[in-house]
Amino acid sequence: MIIQAEPWDEPDVRYIYLTRRSLEALAEVLANLMDRSGVHARNKVLVYDFSMSLPAIVVSRAYAPELRRGACEILDCSMMSVDGVPELAARSAFMFSMLQPEVLMIRSELVSVFRSNLERGDIASANPNLEIVLIVHPDPAPLPREVKLGPGVFSRHLLYKSDDGLFLGLLEDGSLYYPSGYYDVKCSSGFVEVRPLFAKERRSHRTSLECGPSGVEVVSL
Amino acid sequence: MIADREYYDEEAETMSYKDLEDIQFRKLKAVIRYAYDNSRFYRKRWKEVGVTPDDINSMHDFQRRIPPYTKDDVRRSTAPGDPTAGLYSCKPEEISIYSMTSGTTGVNTVLGMGQAFADEIVEKLFMRHYWMTKLRPGMKVFQVLTGWHFLGIMTNLVLTKMGASCVTPWGTTMQKYIHNMMRTMLDNKPDYFIGIPWMIQALMEEATRIGVEPRKVFSSVRYMQLSGEPMTQGLRKKIMDETDVIDVFDAGGNTDGVWGSADCYVHRGWHVWMDVDLLELVEMDSLEPVDYGGKGRWISTLLLLGGPLVIRYLGDDLAQVERERCECGRTHYRVRIFDRLDNTFRMNGRLMTPYEVSLVVEEVCGYRLFTIVNPEAGGDKLKLLIGREGDRDPCAEMLDEIDRVAHKKLGIGIEARLVARERLPFAHRKLVRILRGPDGTLIKGDR
Ligand SMILES: [Zn+2]
User: Fold this and answer.
1) B141 and A42: CB-CB below 8 Å?
2) C-beta atoms of A98 and B78 within 8 A
3) Domain boundaries, position B72
């Protein structure tokens, strides 16, 4: 499968070439990270992100051609997706209150428009089932310090993605968690470098995460 | 799978009507029994009219005794936390894939299914559908991924099963992502294109804008499958002339009614699979049955268990369902949706839609965008605004001919006027096909 990567530097266009093995590995990585976040069997997951965004595409085999088992099939969850554009915030808010998912996966820049489309701006009261929020944070966007979703609901998990590194990790309290069997991750010249072990043709990719004592601590799972 | 054969499942696709009717009725009995025993939605409605599964012993019984329901009935039954409203033939915990209807009539509704149901409907409906529209193993397919959309999800599962590969641009099917789509097409040279008709023109215009020969965008594409907007022969011809693809297929259906398919190379309506869906036609107002071949509102019943439970869902479109063997050899229904009910109008006592009008315009001028203005306003002629093509549009000299052909084909006259294309009314990116109310008189002049 060929996906156009998230554009950062127009008109530069990059593509992510994903073999079936890479797709499967990414789905396993996401399942690992969701499991660590507390997602469990029979949870409903609402994805409000672009369908070709790296974490969204491996949520389910229903979202990715060529993928036989997505993260939700691995974890035995159910899922619904809404395209990650602000124009669809009302639709995703409606689905959020109708489906009442335990898990919300949302792009960071959509949080405020999503919240304002829910009654009284209160995410928790629109959906009493909500337990876990995974905020998709694309590299190289600057790291948010805290994303406020509504009264009592803060960003508990930042789901960090790097298209060029084929990398998915969890950013929590200054630490970057990733499943060690899938990546080689190290600090180089003060920045976190990632290399997927499941895609041999990929070289190390330097992320925008600063590592070291004041920056991000790298923790393998 | 042998790549050059016509059918995905020849036996099923060319089966006799006798066999298809037997299958339909056998499956129908099972679906009705399941609903009565398990679904609070159907049981309550059927009890109100005093019907039980034992009363249904023929198709005639089914049509006369089982009441149809509408999207409003579904909306009234759904509640936060329970989007399925008892309209499923599986346990709620078995539902794992949710999709949405596109919500053109207002509030979206949810369609859920389990993994096993998804596999079954892919095999029985969508593999046949995509094989019929010339998708083959090993092809590279362009599509904008849409995880919320039922057809998008089904397409993904088909590509996996078929062994085709996918190329997708960043974004969604909105005009603002057209540059990404065009670059992805040019850079990756897909064999097969899945999209919406408006994307074709928009992609070619974007190519022109950046100085690329528009035909280059589609130079690698052999087949297209388009859905989401009405397709006429004139539009198909225009797209084929402009892109040099081998064929353009039209796909469609209805997510609430859980039916859909595409046309075959003969292009005379979507082949909706009779062993998966039972389609009926009824009169617009009285809801009395209409024979196949006629026009009316469609009613659908899904003949598969394990997912959505759809028994006589009454649609909001004017449709034609034909039931005679196609030149391609398939026996299954051929369905045409003319338009949504609120896009129908009566003139001289005749029920019409923009579709019939487009056939008149196409016969004279070729494919054109147009809007019908206040068709109920009275007068002996239908008023039309036609979008001008190019600086010296020959259609400008043929407006009398349009009137003459309209008299012959529709029994009414047409008073047409050419206007600049950007002066046609658009709402939510879609052309307003019938403009009603005072706005209809506001568009003046042609500049
Ligand atoms: Zn045919």
Assistant:
1) no
2) yes
3) 2-118+253-342
